[in-house]
Write a structure and sequence with these properties.
279 residues, Endonuclease III, domain 1, three-stranded antiparallel β-sheet, 12 helices, elongated, binds iron/sulfur cluster
């Protein structure tokens, strides 16, 4: 399956399984969305949604937020991650929106990124969700999921992932693809334990294909003879060699032959690691 086929398949099945892909942040207007997205960095949407009702009651407009200092904002957001920094950023962003942009959240990606606390990803989320501007923000979920499926290649930065994904799908679906991938990463292709057995993308997923290609467990090994066993040389050993495979993943190897086809004698499982992207 080519990357183009994978991309088409992924979009298709995720659309079927996630019928209403949209942000889980609660907001009423671009100002509230901007605040919620800034607060959501390194924090869950659920946690942000707990604090924003009270925050927006205290500061219902960007002008109201622009009039206070960071301490006043901090008091309402102390339970989110990095509240000091975020309070400072929100106060600065509100002031700049009022002073420079006449109290309107700018639509332009460049202008958005001049606001304190607003990086490339936040700017794209706001532009895409609030103003329907074609954007494909890459967060940790999008980065992990697209690398695992094999939608991107040698993409070790969010900018590379974004560029490759934009080449795979037409701009009309970028926003939708962003939400589908986030929700898929949040509920199915989770960082610690992806739920491949129930995943609709599995038939197109490289990570799953590599998992299934691992050798089956062995039940004929004797842990008393050594911690590891290499069938190619019929060799038990305790001190393995380390080798890096062609995907750049460190693997346990037989110190005699350097074969990476090695088993853990205590579990009977292959020690082969499939390259993963657990961010
Ligand atoms: S098959 Fe597994 S790794 Fe691949 S997308 Fe689904 S959950 Fe993620």
């Amino acid at each position: 399956m080519t990357r183009t086929d994978r991309a088409a398949f992924t979009l298709d099945v995720l659309r079927q399984h996630i019928p209403a892909p949209q942000t889980e942040l609660c907001y009423e207007n671009p100002y509230e969305l901007l605040v919620a997205v800034v607060l959501s960095a390194q924090c869950t949407d659920a946690r942000v949604n707990l604090v924003t009702p009270q925050l927006f009651e205290a500061f219902p407009t960007v002008e109201a937020m622009a009039e206070v200092d960071a301490d006043a904002i901090f008091a309402h957001i102390r339970s989110v991650s990095y509240p000091n920094n975020k309070a400072r950023h929100l106060a600065g962003a509100a002031r700049r929106i009022v002073d420079v942009y006449g109290g309107e959240v700018p639509r332009d990606l460049e202008a958005l990124q001049t606001l304190p606390g607003v990086g490339r990803k936040t700017a794209q989320v706001v532009a895409s969700v609030a103003f329907d501007i074609a954007a494909l923000p890459v967060d940790t979920h999008v980065f992990r999921v697209t690398n695992r499926i094999g939608l991107v290649r040698k993409a070790d930065t969010v900018v590379k992932v974004e560029r490759q994904l934009k080449a795979l799908w037409p701009s009309e679906v970028w926003g939708e693809a962003h939400h589908l991938l986030i929700l898929h990463g949040r509920y199915t292709c989770t960082a610690r334990k992806p739920r491949c057995e129930v995943c609709p993308v599995a038939p197109a997923c490289l990570y799953y294909e590599r998992l299934r290609a691992l050798p089956p467990p062995r039940h004929d090994l004797d842990p008393k003879k050594g911690r590891y066993y290499a069938p190619a040389s019929d060799h038990y050993f305790d001190e393995p060699a380390l080798k890096t495979d062609r995907y750049g993943t460190p693997q346990i190897a037989d110190p005699r032959t350097h074969s990476m086809n090695v088993y853990d004698t205590r579990t009977g499982l292959s020690t082969r690691k499939v390259p993963d992207f657990r961010v």
